[in-house]
Amino acid sequence: MRAVIQRVLKASVTINGQETRSIGQGLMVLVGIEAQDGEEDISWLSKKIVNLRIFDNQEGVMDLSVKDINGEILVVSQFTLHARTKKGNRPSYVEAAPPNISVPIYEKFKKQLSCSLGKEIVCGEFGASMDVELINNGPVTIIIDTKNKQ
């Protein structure tokens, strides 16, 4: 699994011209899934995300997690995170899992992330064409791949 995590003041997802889901301060998480991803990836990534100390404490040092600040999380599936761009100019998405594999993993990931956070998270709609809007605070953007845990 690959995730792009952005510290945000607010974020929202619009589907078919209607803002359907939004959050205030917290994390915007774009997640891409590969066919070989499984339970271990889901558990490790969800715990890593909610415990990332990327929010400022009173001294202005990034030392607090989204849990510590009682922040929110917006998750959006994004198969393009696994784009291969080595050859030619048209990206290849062969490493991204097809929907029959990625949907169940995505659903488990959302549940595990919510459980790790201790409250409901907000999600985009899998497979939908979405407009995502956010105010990246910092800016702080972190990329995590479960295949690179070491």
Automatic annotation (TrEMBL):
Its EC number is 3.1.1.96, 3.1.1.-. It catalyses: glycyl-tRNA(Ala) + H2O = tRNA(Ala) + glycine + H(+); a D-aminoacyl-tRNA + H2O = a tRNA + a D-alpha-amino acid + H(+). GO terms for biological process: D-amino acid catabolic process. The keyword RNA-binding applies. It is an enzyme of class 3 (hydrolase). GO terms for cellular component: cytoplasm. Keywords: Cytoplasm, Hydrolase, RNA-binding, tRNA-binding. It is found in: Cytoplasm. Its main location: cytoplasm. One of its GO terms (molecular function) is tRNA binding. A motif (Gly-cisPro motif, important for rejection of L-amino acids) lies at residues 138-139. It comes from the Bacteria. An aminoacyl-tRNA editing enzyme that deacylates mischarged D-aminoacyl-tRNAs. Also deacylates mischarged glycyl-tRNA(Ala), protecting cells against glycine mischarging by AlaRS. Acts via tRNA-based rather than protein-based catalysis; rejects L-amino acids rather than detecting D-amino acids in the active site. By recycling D-aminoacyl-tRNA to D-amino acids and free tRNA molecules, this enzyme counteracts the toxicity associated with the formation of D-aminoacyl-tRNA entities in vivo and helps enforce protein L-homochirality. A Gly-cisPro motif from one monomer fits into the active site of the other monomer to allow specific chiral rejection of L-amino acids. Belongs to the DTD family. Homodimer. This is D-aminoacyl-tRNA deacylase.
